[in-house]
Amino acid sequence: MAGGFAGGGGGGDYEGKVTAFVIMTCLVAATGGLLFGYDIGISGGVTSMDEFLLKFFPNVYHKEKSLKEGGSQYCKFDDHMLQLFTSSLYLAALVASFAASITTKAFGRKISMLIGGLIFLVGAVLNGAAMNLGVLILGRLLLGVGIGYANQSVPVYLSEMAPPKLRGALNVCFQMAVTIGIFVANLVNYGTSTMKKNGWRVSLVLAAVPAVIMTVGAVFLPDTPNSLIDRGQKEEAKTMLQKIRGTSNVDNEFEDLIIASDMSKQVQNPWSNIMKPRYRPQLTIAVLIPFFQQLTGINVIMFYAPVLFKTLGFGDGAALMTAVITGVVNVVATLISIFTVDKFGRRALFLLGGTLMIICQIAVGSIISSVFGMDGLGSFSKGLGNITVAFICVYVAAFAWSWGPLGWLVPSEVFPMEIRSAGQSINVSVNMFFTFVIGQLFLTMLCHMKFGLFFFFGGFVVIMTLFIFFFLPETKGIPIEEVTRIWKNHWFWKKYTPADDNNNNNAHV
User: Fold this and answer.
1) pLDDT(439) > 70
2) Other residues' Cβ atoms within 10 Å of the Cβ of residue 277
């Protein structure tokens, strides 16, 4: 059975099975994560390549070379324009997510994915062909627009297509694609770093490959039943629901989707409606989950892994290879999440991951403190370097089965249909804003906060783990149009849920 709650006609035990069609559909849609992942992995690699630095950031290149002969290792890559190369993409994604919300609601989820893939493709070509910093940044901005569209539409698409008991696993496939994108980018960087000329161009232009995969995939994807109903195509929606559930008896679920759509159409302005007290729990989740996800410090590793490892004294090839190792760990640990998220639930993975991340942040900060101290002078022994990499790998693994995939899954599944597109846009925009902040400031923060930066992020991991423990109810196995019922039974959030918020046993009104 696809659902798990009683009550025919009003949100009940929906009939259906897990079909090959819905599995394949969700896997194709999840390839949207390749765009995000490839870009995360590729930017850190090219910014560690000498040829790239010499062409676009000569000041950084000369400072890095001079610091090899002495000086604080913490500050060798501190440059605002270099950071802007990485972070500008996420500022564009922030703005684009709001435009994507309008597109997603008016024309459907697959159209947003198609638009995102095409714009990302143009950005990849511009980056690979860039002859000056202006064109390079323009390409990054277009990549950001593509990611804004993909990250807004793909998690919502997956949550709406997946049967409740597999919603977690299928939605995590988006994060799985992100991790595969990061890993592939790390491999590409390792290979192109050995090229005598234009290796960075090859790295950047290969971003066109995931863009083509997503764009072609979006052409053949069906629209979700929710989206079809929302646009008045009820017969098509019922046919699609029967196809993805593998049964003709979908009346209960279809009726719930109709009611949810009717309720959503009564909302004239979802952006003002989402601010009402009754949606306070969902809004809080949509803001704090992506905020905390970025304050884990994960992008310290993912954006700047080769740069960070070079800062810690690894050679060029060793730094890129170490980034490949963390990429492998990232992929494997995300697989763990896929197979456990619908069995053990979201909270268990969040809490275990958070605990391990705290331990690793403290350990890495302490080791770096013991080697470099406050003045940044020193070097790692091989043994201590390997221990540091091991702690970083455990940290990446803990993130990859918890805050990585769940940071996208949980916000995408808690919103009722009437505010779902607006809510997902808030989720994406908050994520992109703080990704931009971390990307723009990390190298400067490393220069000024030194080893204390790892304790800084570790402190946030403590706070966010406590937030999950006290304020996040479990959403495992609950049909997406009934998820709102979890707030009625929560010790804190129940005061925000109106007593009449359960018409016809539907929690989505």
Assistant:
1) yes
2) 11
